[in-house]
Amino acid sequence: MSSRAPIAFLFPAFPVLHQTFVLWEVLALRRLGLPIRLYSLKRPGAGTQQPEGAALVREVCYLPTLSGAVLAANLRVLRRTPGRYLGTFGRLVHEWWRDRRVKDLWRDPAAPPDPAERLLTVGERLQGFLNENPFMYLLRSLALVLPAVYLGEQLQRDGIQRLHAHWASYPTTVAMVIRWLFDIPFSFTAHAYDIYLVPQLLPEKVRSAEFVVTCARVNAGFLEQLGGAATRQRVIVNYHGVDLARFAPGPRPDGGAVPRIVTCGRLQIYKGHHVLLRACAVLRRPFRLIVIGEGPQHDNLAALARELGIADRVEFTGPLPQAEVARHYREATVFVLASIVVTSYGKRDVIPNVLAEAMAAQVPVVSTRISGIAELVTDGESGRLVPPGDPEALAQVVDELLRDPDQRQRLARGGYDKVVAQFDRAANVRALADLFLDAGRSSASC
């Protein structure tokens, strides 16, 4: 294969506002000359989009789940290679059965559930059940064979010889099935919940892929454990990175102004916004809390702010384009993300991009000691870290920062230096582009 032959990128849904880092990656790789074609298992929901994402929607190929074209493609492959086609279903069952206990690798039986988990919405509980239940995961994986065959034929017609899936769950299942049936090599990027929430089939995905990209060393260690020693060289850590120009530092707030605490992320339990609200409620100084994002926990969080008596000091902005998010960073006194792990089904942050964005804007950050956050934030050097789910500890650190401008300035500079050194998107995307080009040259020489 030519190193400049088209590469298919497959997503669960694309573009999605709260997964903006994937959009920027695609655009940056294209600017470096990588010819990427876009495919998605489903359409994104209605709502706010980044302008750059909205411009791409018309060129994304959204796969039909079940249609005459999908059935016709499957009948053609069944007639042409009946043993291989039917064997794909058996192979999925075999790998699923072999991996049925793999989730136990990340569970901490001593970890107590966060009390806020009782506030999970019906939709969140259903999503957790569907993704965490191994039998439901198997059924969904088997059903994905049908659109996988349709996509495999389309890739062959389009002359595409490499497929890269974003998220290690269902998109990578489709990519693996296409590899089995059409001999099209694949790679994938593993992010966060897709590794820990739905780990069934992951060992075989790691073993079958040409390479695996992930955004944290903690993820890489888990994937290498699943895939075995032979896969260690194929699991590559590539931090998502930050657009240093977009999130450049600006003038800092007036020292006499009311301190602004900013947070950003999906309004879901695992982002820990409820912990931040409880921490703010015990602060003994004026503040303004800005909560950027949308999600199913909005009403619960608004009710909690009222219950705590701080609703008049909390602003829920809803979803915002990145230009507006960057403005809020520059106006912030401190940025806080109080991430937790949802113990009932493992949903978590790994290295939230919003932390790196705030650090690039030279805002002091506070977060929690979970997953890969310590790879970005070194406590006392590039930010502050507290135990997850502990509003008292969080309040103590935030209060300390609000009354200590020298510490804020030192941490802000340390955070900026850390992002420039390791999380510069331009440098990290160049390394990712080289990975794709090297894989293309290796295939062409075979």
Keywords summarizing the entry:
alpha/beta; six-stranded parallel sheet; 19 helices; 13 strands; globular
Brief summary of the model shown:
47% of the residues lie in helices and 13% in strands. It is an alpha/beta fold.
Q: What does the model show?
A:
With about 450 residues, the protein is α/β, with parallel strands linked by helices. It has two domains: about 5-240 and about 425-445, Rossmann fold, CATH 3.40.50; about 260-420, 3-Layer(aba) Sandwich (Rossmann fold). About 45% of the residues lie in helices and about 15% in strands. It contains 19 helices and 13 strands. Strands 3-2-1-4-5-6-7 form a seven-stranded parallel sheet, with helices on both faces. Strand 8, helix 12 (about 275-280) and strand 9 form a beta-alpha-beta unit. It is globular. It starts with 6 loop residues before the first strand and ends with a helix. The model has no long low-confidence stretch (mean pLDDT about 90).
Topology, please?
Elements lengths: L6 E7 L6 H12 L4 E7 L8 H6 L4 E2 L5 H13 L1 H17 L23 H11 L1 H10 L1 H13 L5 E4 L3 H13 L3 E5 L2 H4 L5 H7 L3 E3 L2 H11 L7 E3 L22 E5 L8 H9 L6 E5 L5 H10 L6 E5 L3 H10 L2 E3 L16 H8 L4 E4 L4 H4 L7 E3 L4 H12 L2 H18 L2 H21 L1
Parallel strand pairs: 1-2, 1-4, 2-3, 4-5, 5-6, 6-7, 8-9, 8-11, 9-10, 11-12, 12-13
Helix pairs in contact: 3-4, 3-7, 4-6, 7-8, 10-11, 12-17, 15-18
CATH architectural label of the largest domain: 3-Layer(aba) Sandwich
Enumerate the strands of the largest sheet in spatial order, edge to edge or round the barrel: 3-2-1-4-5-6-7
Mean pLDDT across residues? 90
**DSSP summary, beta strand count:** 13
CATH homologous group name of the largest domain: Glycogen Phosphorylase B
Oligomer: single chain
Query: Beta-sheet strand percentage?
Result: 5-15%
First-to-last CA distance:
9 Å
Radius of gyration: 22 Å
* Biggest sheet record: 7 strands, parallel
Number of domains: 2
Structural class: alpha/beta
